[in-house]
Amino acid sequence: MFSAHTWHVAVRLVHVGAAAVVFGGLALVTLLLLQRRRADDATPLLGVVELFERVAWLALGVIVMTGVGNAGAIGRALPGPSSVWGGRFAVKLAAVLLLLLLSLVRSAAVTHAAARAPVALAAEAVNPLLRLYGLSVTLTGVILGLAVFLAHG
Amino acid sequence: MWQDRYHPSHSYPLLLAWALSAFHTSVFVAVALLGLHLGGALGPALAQLDTLTGMALFLGLWGTGWWATRFGARGIGAAVLGRWMSDGALVNRGPMAGGLNGALFYAWLALVLALRSLVGGQPEVAALFVSSAVVGVPFAFIFGVAFGFVFAVLDTVLIEVGRAQVIAGLPPPATGVATPTATADVTPEEP
């Protein structure tokens, strides 16, 4: 039906697209939290944050799934862990694992904030969430940098 | 209004169950990838896997994980409100949920590989995969129980870290949402 090359291009496209959703969404929520801290408005930020968490987990799952496909496209030619490329690949995988751990902490924090103040995001929760989102967006940026090295470096 | 549709007070148990199912599946696969890579076996292992089969296996694991996580996360409404560390809801239910997940996923794995063999014109190999489920499913259940326990402990620690980040200075849980005494067995709502 489709050639192997077409499949690999499609898988890579979805992988990059999902990564863009995570990075862009994290950056957007971080900016919204910064705005919320500066101006104490009643923007329904909690609903936005909670919706993003759902989308982010979908995208993270897709990233891991298509990441397997990307590595599978290289197959037996995949460099070992002792090579420069293989070492960077191992670091990237470890960073993705760290992002998954951090994301569960972040989702739990959002859930607790919603349980305690379900109508609007409490002012006391803004700074802790800002820290978690800031860490997440920074780590995602590092992973994207590693991905660029792996693809083009 | 989308604000009403996604109002956190109605859907936060579901968010955590959704997050946990994606977390379990992604961490399981990422750890396997990293282990195989560090052992130098990733390339040969992936060379045996075509794109469609790989996607079917991953989505199957995610699907069984979603069902098993919702099974294990019953009562999570009380859990997120602070009582779960003492009543150990996740740790109590996690191993059984993991066992069911393992058994279901092995059955799915055998089915997918059997179908692939049938399409490839190898009916005898397909029969082998199907018959392997008789022994494989109980073993997968046992492995799943072990993984379920490890994940339940990890979930518990990470959720507690998240709770500790935002809990200071916030008011007590809103009435009408859920309370530790009223939601001992809350089932997350349907999507």
Name its key features.
heterodimer, A: 153 residues, 4 helices, 84% helix, elongated, B: 191 residues, mainly alpha, disordered C terminus
Provide a descriptive summary of the structure in words.
The complex is a heterodimer of chains A (153) and B (191). Chain A is mainly α and 153 residues long. Helix content of chain A is 84%, strand content 0%. Chain A has 4 helices and no strands. Chain A has helices at 4-38, 45-74, 84-116, 123-152. In chain A, helix 3 (84-116) packs antiparallel against helix 4. Chain A is elongated and about 55 Å long. The model of chain A has no long low-confidence stretch (mean pLDDT 89). Chain B has 191 residues and is mainly alpha-helical. Chain B is built from 7 helices and no strands. Chain B is elongated and about 65 Å long.
Helix percentage of chain B? over 70%
Radius of gyration of chain A: 18 Å
Radius of gyration of chain B: 20 Å
The average pLDDT of chain A is 89
Overall structural class of chain B, as computed from helix and strand content, comes to: mainly alpha
How is the topology of this model organized?
The complex is a heterodimer of chains A (153) and B (191).
Chain A: H1 4-38, H2 45-74, H3 84-116, H4 123-152
Chain B: H1 2-5, H2 8-38, H3 42-47, H4 51-72, H5 76-87, H6 89-119, H7 123-167
